[in-house]
Amino acid sequence: MIVAFSVTPLGVGEDVGEYVADAVRVVRESGLPNRTDAMFTSIEGEWDEVMDVVRRAVAAVEARAPRVSLVLKADIRPGVTDGLTSKVETVERHLAQ
Question: What InterPro entries does the record point to (predicted)?
Fold first, then answer.
């Protein structure tokens, strides 16, 4: 499964990069395939391991912020691996034609 999620601290002002970095650090230390862009962090793995990482990423932000917003989107597709790379490669292949 691939999960794209965004953790946003609320009540800490406009500059939230430091808080978001705490969440991304948890994801990167998990060892699961992941990518971060300007809006979301995507992570790939089995249901329990991915959701555990999301929970810990939220907890990292929650430890420093009075309120946290979580947006999550999941692509649950059994048997598919390396979806983070293969989905993008497919789109790029079509764009190159």
Answer: MTH1187/YkoF-like, Thiamine_BP, UPF0045_domain
Contact between residue 60 and residue 22 where contact means Cβ atoms under 8 Å apart? yes
Q: At what angle do helices 47-62 and 17-29 cross, to 10 degrees?
A: 150
Q: Minimal CA–CA distance to 20: which of 9, 31, 12, 32?
A: 9
Q: Which 8-state DSSP code applies to residue 64?
A: T
Q: What is the dihedral of CA 37, 51, 49, 6, to 10 degrees?
A: 10
Confidence of residue 96 (pLDDT cuts 50, 70, 90): very high
pTM exceeds cut of 0.70: yes
Q: Is 31 exposed, middle or buried (0-12, 13-18, 19+ CB in 10 A)?
A: exposed
CA distance 29 to 5: 16
pLDDT value at position 83?
85
Q: Cβ(85)–Cβ(44) under 8 Å?
A: no
